[in-house]
Amino acid sequence: MDKLPKIGIPVIIIVIILIIAFAKSAVTIGSGEAGVLYRTFGGGVVTDEPPLGEGFHLIAPWNDVIVYEVRQQELFEKMKVLSSNGLEIQIDASAWYEPVYNDLGNLHQSLGENYLQRVIQPAIRSAARSVVGRYTPEQLYSSKRDAIQDEIYTETKKILEEQYVQLNEVLVRDVTLPNTIKDAIERKLKQEQESLEYEFRLVTAAKEAEKVIIEAQGKADANRILSASLTDKILQDKGIEATIKLAESPNSKVIVIGSGEKGLPIILGNQ
Q1: How many CA atoms lie within 13 A of 57 on its CB side?
Q2: What are phi and psi of 112, to 5 degrees?
Q3: What local confidence, expressed as pLDDT, does residue 12 receive?
Q4: Where are the domains of the chain?
Q5: pLDDT (tens digit, 9 = 90+) per residue, 229-260?
Q6: In contact, 93 and 153? CB cutoff 8 Å
Q7: What is the pTM of this model?
Q8: What CATH code is assigned to 73-177?
Q9: Higher pLDDT, 185 or 209
Q10: Which value, to the nearest 10 degrees, does the dihedral of the CA atoms of residues 156, 157, 161, 165 take?
């Protein structure tokens, strides 16, 4: 009975050590995550192997695993930048990004877990300053928002391609101008719209006037052609035809009096 405690203490110590070792060796990677393995006695960060994927893993207890989120993530930035004429513009933009999965070890070794602040934020800010500086406030306010969005994306992507980060999209959500500049632009756009509307009315009126002139000319030409075709012989024949129709009417009493060699008969009388 006296020997049992002496034997039990080392066993308990060994069990505790095994439990601690197992706890240090067991690593669970969650959904949408990946782990970078750090070998304490084997060269440090593992960069020549794929990262540890989702699920349960056993590693040597003296090694370590750094877990990264590998889903697409969003960075929202409010940036104050200068336009081409030196006016301060506020840009609200979002960047969708994710670490390059197979380069996760390189990312950890070169940039670390705060890679967002180290490379992504500076990259998008630099690209926004460069792009917005090419445009005037009028262009930014009206027609160039899609263009600056595409250009910011292109320039940011170039910077991040060598930083083990994948940029998926840049969205410019809002462009805010100083109120005085915004009001001046809106007044200018309104005046331009009114000017275009006035020009449209002038063009429409000119076309209507041209249409009336063409129609009148057509009628005049038709009457001139008709007059030229009505000879005395045709008119005499038409008159004779009309006289015959009147004479054939049962309700008329007809007296025909000649009016000359080529004259038409004269119809007199009624019931």
Answers
A1: 21
A2: 90, -175
A3: 67
A4: 3-69, 73-177, 188-229, 232-268
A5: 656 666 566 666 666 666 666 665 555 555 54
A6: no
A7: 0.60
A8: 3.30.479.30
A9: 209
A10: 80
